[in-house]
Amino acid sequence: MKVVKVVAAVICDSISSKKNIFATARGYGEFKGLWEFPGGKTEEGETSKQALAREIREELNTEISVGDLIGTVEYDYPEFHLSMDCFWCEVTRGYLELKEAEAAKWLARDELDSVQWLPADLTIIEKIRKEMV
Questions:
Q1: Count of C-beta atoms within a 10 Å radius of residue 26
Q2: Which of 12, 24, 94, 112 is least surrounded by Cβ atoms within 10 Å, i.e. has the fewest?
Q3: Which domains does the chain have, with CATH numbers?
Q4: pLDDT score recorded for residue 128
Q5: d(Cα 133, Cα 130) in Å, to the nearest integer?
Q6: 3-class secondary structure per residue, the chain
Q7: pTM of the full predicted structure?
């Protein structure tokens, strides 16, 4: 089975307090309309943190600080295996401008279940919830 290596930014209002996180609705493909953490594929020669900073610049036109690794999601989709490194992040410069997603919202801890997450992203929601205030 093909392995796809990606990175995801769990962008929060503040890495130290983690009251709200930023989620986006996929704007294309088979999972259009489902919610996810922004990010993308790692390119050859990049570290996960470098890839994440690049992807957020490309997808959201903003600069982020990449913090601690929350965890790595290993998930089998029918056509491929996804390996996704998820990091706590916060905006350091710019505004979150949607270039690929069809919608976005800030979610508080008690709102995490209000959107329909992509299957892989759903597997890390409880770990994120435990670290939010």
A1: 18
A2: 94
A3: 2-131 (3.90.79.10)
A4: 98
A5: 8
A6: CEEEEEEEEEEECCCCCCCEEEEEECCCCCCCCCEECCEEECCCCCCHHHHHHHHHHHHHCEEEEEEEEEEEEEEECCCEEEEEEEEEEEEEEECCCCCCCCEEEEEEHHHHHHCCECHHHHCCHHHHHHHCC
A7: 0.96
Q: Name 20's Cβ contacts closer than 8 Å, sequence gap at least 6.
A: 12, 13, 106, 107, 108
User: Which residues are paired to 107 by β-bridges?
Assistant: 21
Is 7:55 a contact under the CB 8 Å cutoff?
yes
Per-residue confidence (pLDDT) for residue 97, from 0 to 100: 95
What does the block give as tokens for 101? 């997603």
Strand order in the sheet with 35-36: 35-36, 20-25, 103-108
Structure tokens at 16: 């130290």
Average pLDDT over residues 89-105: 95
Can you give the pLDDT at residue 51?
98
Tokens of 28: 């294309």
Distances (CA, A) of 64 to 35, 43, 103: 20, 18, 19
Residues 57, 104: Cα–Cα separation, whole Å: 16
